[in-house]
Design brief:
two-stranded antiparallel ribbon, 112 residues, globular, 2 helices, 4 strands, Secreted protein, 13% helix, alpha+beta
Length: 112
């Protein structure tokens, strides 16, 4: 199965005062390296929050999380790892290419 991922609640470590900025190429490469292709990934799915909008057509510029059929994943890790992929990505030892936890970024959502 192939999935496109977008992160919620994580921002680049080198952002200013919580501003949401673009990720550096090194940070993107680090994220890709943590998403191993040679081993299975374990995901914990929260739910499909946009299920009632499956037939909705959105403009191309609409954010990925608002699209129909998006799965909201609580955690993701490589099968056999003890830490989640996000925890490894946000670890301070990866600075300046790591992410940092930012509450309510890029948007909050409520559960039914």
């Amino acid at each position: 199965m192939c999935m496109q991922l977008c992160m919620h609640g994580v921002a680049p470590a080198q952002n200013n005062a919580g501003d949401i900025v673009d990720w550096s190429e090194k940070a993107k490469n680090l994220w890709r390296s943590l998403l191993r292709e040679d081993l299975p990934m374990v995901i914990s799915v929260v739910k499909r929050l946009n299920a009632e909008d499956d037939n909705r057509v959105l403009p191309a510029a609409a954010p990925a999380w608002s699209r129909p059929g998006v799965l909201f994943i609580q955690s993701l890790k490589v099968h056999g790892d003890t830490q989640t992929t996000l925890k490894r990505f946000c670890h301070p030892s990866q600075y300046p290419n790591n992410g940092v936890a930012v509450e309510n970024a890029p948007r909050p959502w409520s559960y039914d």
